Amino acid sequence: MSVTRAQLAQLYTPIYDEFFMSTFAEEEQVNPKLFKQIDDRTKEYKVDSISALGEWVDAEEGSGGGQETPVLGYAKTYTPSKKWKKLQVTFESVDCDEYALLKKESDVKAMGRGGRAAVEKASAKVLADGFSTSCPDGQYLFSDSHPKNSEETGTTYDNLLSGAFSHDNLEAAESQIAQNMFDAKGIPIEVSENALLVHPPELRGDVYRVLNERASEQPDTTLRNVNRFRGRYTPIEWRWLSSALEGSATMWFIVYPELEMLKLIWQARPHYTSWIDEDNELYIFKGRMIFDVGADDWRAVWGSTGV
Question: Cα(56)–Cα(41) distance, rounded to whole angstroms?
Fold first, then answer.
C-alpha cells in the first residue's frame, strides 16, 4: 500500500514537534531566573500597586485613631503580543524526493532556537534599555528620581548605580541600596542575602575576580584577607546583554527576583502546529507564542551603565 502525501506529512509532524521543543529548551534560559513567569489568558494583564500600611503609631488609653489609608501606586499593564515562524514544504518537493520532509529537520530545529532567542532578547532589553525607557512611575527604570509614592513625590529614591563594575563600586552599590530600598510608605524592604549580579560576557573576568573567595588575598604580604563578597551574590552571565547583541560591554545589575517585580506574562507558551494547504499544495509547519515582559516597579533591580 502506497503512502499518500497527507500521511507522509502526518508521519513527520510529531517528530518535528519534538525537534522544535528540544532546541527551544536545549540551552538554559536566563529570563526565568529574573522574571516571575505568569500564565494569563486575558488580553491585558494589569498590575495595580497599592502600598502597605506604614509604621505603627503611639496610642493613648481610651482614645481612638490609628487608621491609615493605603496609597495607590503606579499601574503597569502588560499587553502580550504574538511571535511566530513558519516553514513551508511544497507538494512537488515531496513528489520528487520521498525524504524531502525529513530533510527539514535542521530548519525545524532552527525555529526552536529562534523562538528561544526572541524571549531572551525581549527579556534582556528590559534591563539594557532601562536607562532610557520609563517604568510605571514615569521615571526611567534606572533613575535617581523615583518618587516615594503618587502622593509624596517630593521624596525620591535612587536605583541608578554608578561607575564600572569593581570591588569598590559594588561596596558603594550596597550602601546606596541600603539607603534607598524602601516601600511606598517608607518602610525598609527586607531582601535576601543572595542577590543576582547580572552582567554581559565581557565582564566575566571582572566579576569572577571580585566575587572569588581569594579576591582580597595579597600573596606577597602577610595579609590573607577573606573576601566578604564570597557567597553574597550569584553571578548571572547573560549573552543578550552583550555589546554584540544591542547591549553593552560595561553595564551591570543587581536583581532581587524574590520581590517579583519583573514579570513575563505568557498568554500562550511556545507551541508547534502543522497543517496541509491543499489549495496551494503546501505542508506548513509553525512555531507560535504570545507574551509580554517588563518591570512593574523599580525596587527589584538596580543598574549601572558601567561608564
Answer: 40
Q: What is the CATH number of the domain that holds 155?
A: 3.90.1690
Which residues 6+ apart lie within 8 Å of 196 measured at CB? 33, 34, 233, 234, 235, 236, 253, 254, 255, 256, 257
| Mean pLDDT, rounded, for 188-208 | 92
Count of structural domains, the chain: 1
Average pLDDT score over residue span 72-76: 84
pLDDT at 94 over 90: no
* pTM recorded for the entire structure: 0.83
Beta-strand pair 233-237/252-255: unpaired
In sequence order, the β-bridge partners of residue 78 are 45
Banded model confidence at residue 268, pLDDT cuts 50, 70, 90: very high
C-alpha triplet 167, 171, 175: angle, nearest 5° = 165
245's grid cell: 547583541
φ/ψ of residue 157, rounded to 5: -120, 160
pLDDT above 80 (res 286)? yes
Task: Please give the Cα distance from 199 to 217 (Å, whole number).
Answer: 24
Q: Is the pLDDT of residue 228 over 80?
A: no
Tell which residue, 274, 276, 300, has the closest CA to residue 287.
274
Q: Is residue 283 domain-resident?
A: yes
- Angle (CA) 281-284-286 rounded to 5° is 165
Query: Which carries the bigger pLDDT value, residue 220 or residue 166?
Result: 166
Look at residue 54 and tell me if it is in a domain: no
Nearest Cα to Cα of residue 295 among 135, 182, 171: 135
Distances (CA, A) of 160 to 1, 172, 198: 70, 12, 15
Residue from 193, 204, 262 nearest 237 by CA: 204
Domain that holds residue 211: 5-49+73-304
Whether the CB-CB separation of 114 and 53 falls below 8 Å is answered with no
